[in-house]
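Dear Dr. H.,

I hope your travels went smoothly. While you were away I took the liberty of generating a structure for the chain from your last submission, since the lab meeting agenda had it listed for discussion. I wanted you to have the full record in hand beforehand rather than looking at slides cold. The sequence, exactly as received, is reproduced here:
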Amino acid sequence: MSSVAASGSEYGAPGDSDEGNAPSASTPASCSTQATASSMTRTYFESWDAFFEYLAEYQDSTHQVFRKRTSTSAEARNKELKKRGTLTPATRSTGKRDNLFSKSTNCKAHLSLAVVWVDDLGFRVKLTDQSTLHNHRLGRLTYDNHPANRRIEDPDVIDFVDELQAAGAKKKLIMQCLRRRTGKQVTLRD
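The corresponding predicted structure, in token form, is as follows:
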């Protein structure tokens, strides 16, 4: 079984937190508000690819961001690590910087999925449980500001940025150019 949990990305309002432990402006904070989004309408999917394609459309239409989690147990993971037999771990770097949204909002919204046998159709991915109650606001601006939605993966745009950097263009100029070209609200850290 696999599950997908919501990833909060809402900044707290200046007066929302205690002064003693007030988060910095770049730290996401859970709001005292709750928001409920509409549930997924489909229950069965032909494949994982079909599910993730539907999930991308669903997230965009409801302004939610779900993060992918695995159901691998700690015991299975530890067994795999023992098999490797090395004391120096291989790098897990993806080449991407940590983003501003590295702290969790502890949002309990989630989707649970399992692969099941359907008599006439064979194996299918089934949505077994979903909760769309969030402990933060939902909206287009919040959704567009989430790092996963600001990421640019178009190779042509990336090549263009590489050329600008090689030519010595300033970061702010590159950021403005990316915003115009892609419509995404990229930041200097992206």
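Two observations you may find useful: The radius of gyration is 20 Å. The chain has two domains: 2-90+100-137, 151-190.

With kind regards,
E. W.
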